[in-house]
Design a protein that fits this description.
- The protein is α/β, with parallel strands linked by helices.
- The chain contains 13 helices and twelve strands.
- The strands form three sheets. The protein has an eight-stranded mixed sheet with strand order 3-2-1-4-5-6-12-9, sandwiched between helices. A two-stranded antiparallel ribbon has the order 7-8. The protein has a two-stranded antiparallel ribbon with strand order 10-11.
- Strand 2, helix 2 and strand 3 form a beta-alpha-beta unit.
- Helix 1 packs across helix 11.
- The protein is globular and about 55 Å long.
- The two termini are 25 Å apart.
- The chain binds alpha-D-ribofuranose (RIB) and calcium ion (CA).
- Alpha-D-ribofuranose binds next to helix 1, helix 7 and helix 12.
- Calcium ion binds next to helix 1.
């Protein structure tokens, strides 16, 4: 990363079971400094996702990372949470110990903007929840896309079915206006969409191996993923689960895991009932008339290696 040994990462998230595994992965990497965590509404209310972030950072051995509360609702629409996917507490009903700390006084967009200004060209951003905090941060600091080194987003369904509608993926549908702002802001942006995450699963064998790993870190994570696999087994027909957010974290830290991708400008449809929140890539072979900076859409990854990295991180 930019020649320096340590990557400095801001994580914007809505933990959330797969968000938790993404944090576990980053926390286990000695070459990653988690500079800050922003919480956003999404899988649960923002007070809950912020509290979960504090608990998870203690569980995964990074008790000093600042956690900032972000947006409680989307820019335009009403919030919609996902207790049926992530449990009523956002962590599959697993009760982690009360956190020893509180969130910081700054809001998540304020923390992100300050860290980006203090580390120009050196801060990476991983966004694995609705993009509201990022859109607000761009509003506060329009040069954010130039200050940040790279942004990796988990979200969207580009050439594949959605998960909350025919074309809609949860993170984007939860705030289409915010997503449209972020895709148009000019970031160096890698998109890890359902196109690749639905095929990158924690298999029954992988989950069984994790369940045998002793210690709180692996055992609590097994508890989260048990709940997640219950939900996803209705989709896959076997007890396994998609690894959306951890895959985005891995793509940020280990870009060599990416084995296939394409580049295209992406716009988020904000109209329609069937198309609101759809991520539309302009892939016409004739030169695109869209002046928007293209996004790199990841289409395939080295999944065996990815799963091995995840297991190592949880050991
Ligand atoms: O669609 C998958 C995304 O939405 C993930 O970030 C997951 O945490 C859910 O909220
Ligand atoms: Ca998430």
């Amino acid at each position: 990363s930019g020649g320096s040994l340590t990557m400095r990462v801001f994580v914007d998230c809505d933990p959330g079971i797969d968000d938790a595994v993404a944090l576990a992965y980053l926390a286990a990497r000695p070459d990653v400094e988690i500079a800050g965590v922003g919480a956003v509404f999404g899988n649960n209310a923002v007070e809950v996702t912020a509290d979960n972030a504090l608990r998870l950072l203690e569980l995964y051995g990074r008790p000093d990372v600042p956690v900032a509360v972000g947006c409680a609702r989307p820019l335009v629409q009403e919030p919609r949470l996902a207790p049926h996917v992530h449990g009523t507490n956002g962590l599959g009903e697993v009760e982690l110990p009360e956190p020893a700390r509180k969130p910081v006084a700054e809001s998540a967009p304020e923390l992100l903007v300050r860290l980006a200004r203090e580390n120009p060209g050196e801060l990476d951003v991983l966004a694995v929840g609705p993009l509201t905090n990022l859109a607000v941060a761009v509003g506060m600091e329009p040069k954010l896309p130039q200050l940040v080194r790279k942004l990796v987003v988990m979200g969207g369904a580009v050439s594949t079915p959605g998960n909350v509608g025919p074309h809609g993926e949860a993170n984007i549908v939860n705030d289409p206006e915010a997503a449209e702002t972020v895709f148009g802001a000019g970031f160096d942006l890698d998109l890890v969409a359902l196109d690749v995450t639905m095929g990158t699963v924690a298999t029954p064998e992988w989950l069984a191996e994790l369940a045998l790993v002793p210690g709180d870190k692996a055992q609590h994570t097994t508890g989260f993923l048990d709940f997640y696999a219950d939900f996803y087994s209705r989709i896959y027909g076997v007890r396994q689960c998609a690894m959306h957010d951890p895959l985005a974290a891995a793509v940020l830290v280990d870009p060599r895991l990416v084995t296939g991708s394409f580049e295209a400008p992406i716009r988020v449809e904000t109209a329609g009932t069937l198309t609101r929140g759809m991520t539309v890539a302009d892939r016409r072979p004739v030169p695109s008339t869209d002046e928007r900076r293209p996004v790199r859409v990841v289409t395939s990854v080295a999944d065996a290696e990815f799963l091995r990295l995840m297991l190592d991180a949880l050991r």
